[in-house]
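Let's practice the habit of predicting before peeking. Look at the sequence and jot down your guess about where helices and strands might fall. Then scroll down.
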Amino acid sequence: MILDAQPDIEVLAEAGDGAQALDAVRRLRPDVALLDIRMPVMDGIEACRAITGRSDCRTVMLTTFDADEYVYEALHAGASGFLLKDVRRDDLVHAVRVVAAGESLVAPSVARRLIAEYTSRPSPGRSPVGPGRLDGLTARERETLLHLARGLSNAEIAAALVLSEHTVKTHVGNVLSKLGLRDRVQAVICAYETGLVSPSSEGGSAGTSPARVRRSPPHDPSLG
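Done guessing? Here is the structure:
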């Protein structure tokens, strides 16, 4: 198995549906849960909402952008990241470590496709967000948000802006606080919604340093 082979990751359980995944999280209290958006009994969105609302476990959603229509809803349910189902093995391992360390995972290609899907499907219950929402940000904080939307890690943003990583963390915290956002995933969505970044714009490369993982997620059988 991909994750079992890692010395710092322990697979605690596998689940055949969303209800089983939720039960496993309650019993085993993992750091991260990998959830397929489309699962029987309880879908990934409902499971994600229940998991993030009742535990400290962070969730990563597995999706196929050409088929799934509910990716944006999953983000609002509290997902900390998104991976395509054909993700490379190294990227899967990297994602688990990043999310377990407390960061969110939004690769540039995934972010662009996510927003392109979102903006092409207007929702009756969604209010438009204007660029005025960003008026409370300083110029440096807007730059930081721009780089967040392109999928850069704190270290990469620090290099791009010629700042210390500590200063970048402060800017990221200020952006999230001023805009009332939960995490970096929501910051990416906000950047697109306000027009700071467009789905067709060029993105950078995502990455962050590996972190130790105490416990690992209920493993999706399709990742075998």
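How did you do? The domain at 131-193 is CATH 1.10.10.10 (Arc Repressor Mutant, subunit A).
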